[in-house]
Structures are given as C-alpha cells and as structure tokens.
Write a structure and sequence with these properties.
Radius of gyration: 17 Å
Distance between the termini: 70 Å
CATH topology of the largest domain: DNA polymerase, domain 1
Oligomer: single chain
CATH architecture of the largest domain: Orthogonal Bundle
Number of strands: 5
Length: 173
C-alpha cells in the first residue's frame, strides 16, 4: 500500500524550509534526513533520553515523538540554530567552559533544554537547575559539570543583558 506524502513548511533556525514527508515521518527524521540537520540526535526513540530535543515555537519537545506533519507552519530551533551570527550562545559557551560534555551525543538535547529553561528562569536555584535537566540522560558526565554549565550560562546571560543595558544608556545620553 502506498503511503500518502504531505508537503510541510517549517521555519527551521530562522529559515523557511519545505519537505515532502510520509504522514508517519518523525520530526527527528525530517530534520536529519530530509533537511540535512544532523545536530539533532536520535537515541532511545521513545522520548526518554532527550537527545532529540528541539525547540518548537520556543518550547522544548522530543522530536522523536512528534510527527513532522503536525508541526507544519511552526518554528523549530535545532542545536544548529542556537549560535547567533557565528558566535556560540551563552549556553553553548558555558557547556564548553565547564566541560559539560564528553562524548557529545546528548549535548544537543541538553543545549536546547537549557536554552528554554534559562529564558524562563534566568537565575535558577540548584534544585531548579537539577529538575530542568533531569529529563535528559547522559551516560558519560555524571551531571556535575552540566549543572555547573547551567549556572555559568545564567551568569553569562545576566552579564550580556547588563552590558546591553549599559550600552543603551550610554547611547541615549
């Protein structure tokens, strides 16, 4: 039996992209195979590990549990889209500074998860940071440096906001 294919239009990392996919194509597979964005990793394919986490309209979702046709017309940010203008995002820089990755397989999911978390909670407590990353599995790091990276990213973001505010004040004076 021939499966019906559907045309989907997605804004991925700020770029409008189109793909023709079967109705049962997972978003993770669409991103990786149809759009060539291999930064989104597929681990368990059951939504447990979090390696496939991307931002859908700014919110973290498991792309291995999401059909591509259900997100037609929506905005997706993958790990490739976190850097802005060639510069690593504060979360990416913090993960690097704090050695919060080893093999790197889980890292894209953590980066997307932490990016959304810090947007909503820019100064998390230790408990809040732990809860935020608890849905992503890492078999290498032991999580200590990942938690350090969450707090370091919050510091970097706060410093960038303060610098931008200072610059705006000086420019308006």
């Amino acid at each position: 039996m021939n499966e019906t294919h559907h045309r989907v239009t997605l804004t991925v990392n700020g770029v409008v992209r189109e793909a023709t996919v079967p109705g049962r194509r997972l978003l993770s597979d669409c991103l990786r195979h149809d759009l060539g964005l291999t930064g989104t990793h597929v681990g368990c394919e059951h939504g447990v590990c979090g390696a496939c986490t991307v931002l859908l309209d700014g919110e973290p979702v498991r792309s291995c549990l999401t059909f591509a046709v259900t997100v037609d017309g929506q905005e997706i940010t993958t790990v490739e889209g976190l850097a802005q203008g060639g510069a690593l995002s504060p979360v990416q820089r913090a993960f690097t500074e704090c050695h919060a990755l080893q093999c790197g397989f889980c890292t894209p999911g953590f980066l997307c998860t932490v990016t959304a978390f810090l947007r909503d909670n820019p100064a998390p407590s230790e408990e809040e940071a732990l809860e935020a990353v608890a849905g992503n599995l890492c078999r290498c790091t032991g999580y200590q440096n990942i938690l350090k990276a969450v707090h370091r990213a919050a510091e970097i973001q706060a410093a960038e906001i303060q610098a931008a505010e200072l610059q705006a004040e000086e420019g308006g004076a």
